[in-house]
Design brief:
This protein has helices at about 1-35, 50-100, 110-125, 150-165, 170-180, 180-185, 215-230, 245-300, 305-340; strands spanning about 130, 135, 200, 205-210. The chain is mainly alpha-helical. The two termini are about 15 Å apart.
């Protein structure tokens, strides 16, 4: 009877040890599969809160980098559109200079053609978008900022007609053009109330990279090009306006477009400054991300190679335990047969 109890005790002891080994093997197997020491925060003990804070910080950084990446993409496209608009306006100014040097051979149609072609490109640039978001619409990203090219043309033709008829002087013509409203120049009715666009680059930092199609630089270029595209040289004996008036308007429009180009350069400088700030923040966040990941690895990660070695050792121990269990079972059977 004592022998039976002793054998039972041995068997129970082996079974308990096997369960312990199995639990340990399961832990090491999870470490090998996941690369971390434990599967729940509770198992990390004192390190638990620190790990949760690290993960929260990493999530925040990922969000900031996502915001920055979107803004950088938008800014790159905006800067390209602004540069192209400056170039188109510059080409028209060059065309005016070329024609002015010709004196009596002045060809207005050449300037009108250049202005019309440039205007189409400028209008396309004002309506540039990425996906379904218009970049020069401020916060009103779903609405096209420039919608009334035909309206602008009609209003400008009215101004030219009134000037030719003598209803307005050359100075009044220029003043009327300068004071035209956004809607008269063809801008969306919702653009004026649109708010600025910001990139959330850090917890307490929002970077403003707003440039609207109706900002003064764009607006002056659009108005000036519209004048040139619709301007006419007065006909002697028919029109009340004179050629001197024409050249006065031409000079005013030239200065008007020049001012618009300067305004566009200011807008380019604004988005370039925003891009510089965002680049700096992206670098800082990337460095913080890498440092946090290293700290996380030292706190949370496991040595997979070491876990695999320990798993193999436990597996060998388990196999040995099974062999011992088998031997004990055979001894018990022999004793039972002998006693019978």
């Amino acid at each position: 009877m004592a022998t039976s109890i002793s054998t039972l005790g041995q068997t129970i002891g082996i079974i308990n040890r096997n369960k312990t080994i199995q639990n340990q093997m399961s832990q090491f197997q999870n470490q090998i599969a996941t690369g971390v020491k434990y599967q729940t925060f509770k198992e990390y003990g004192a390190d638990s809160l620190r790990i949760q804070r690290y993960r929260s910080d990493l999530n925040d950084i990922t969000g900031f980098l996502y915001n920055i990446n979107i803004a950088q993409t938008n800014i790159k496209q905006m800067d390209s559109a602004l540069s192209e608009t400056e170039e188109q306006a510059g080409n028209v100014l060059s065309a005016i200079n070329i024609q002015l040097t010709k004196g009596s051979d002045f060809n207005l149609e050449s300037i009108k053609g250049a202005a019309s072609a440039a205007l189409q490109i400028v209008q396309a640039n004002m309506n540039v978008k990425i996906g379904d978001r218009y970049l020069f619409a401020g916060s009103d990203v779903s609405n096209q900022p420039y919608t009334g090219a035909a309206t602008a043309t009609s209003n400008m033709q009215t101004q030219v007609t009134n000037w030719l008829a003598g209803t307005t002087t050359a100075d009044q013509f220029t003043t009327n053009v300068e004071s035209m409203t956004d809607s008269q120049l063809g801008y969306s009715t919702t653009l004026g109330s649109a708010k600025n666009v910001y990139a959330r680059a850090d917890t307490d930092l929002e970077v403003d990279y707003t440039v609207k199609a109706s900002d003064q630089g764009y607006k002056d270029v659009v108005a000036g090009l519209n004048v040139l595209a619709n301007l006419k040289i007065p006909t002697e004996g028919t029109d009340a306006a004179t050629k001197d008036d024409f050249y006065k308007i031409l000079d005013n429009v030239y200065k008007f477009i020049q001012g618009g180009v300067e305004g566009l350069r200011d807008s380019s400088a604004k988005v370039a400054s925003a891009a510089g700030t965002l680049n700096t923040m992206a670098t800082n966040h990337t460095n913080d991300q890498q440092n946090l990941q290293k700290v996380m690895e030292s706190t949370e990660a496991t040595d997979v190679t070491e876990a695999a070695v320990k798993f193999q050792a436990l597996q060998n121990q388990m196999e040995s335990s099974y062999r011992v269990t088998a031997i004990i079972s055979q001894l018990n059977l022999a004793r039972f047969l002998g006693s019978s």
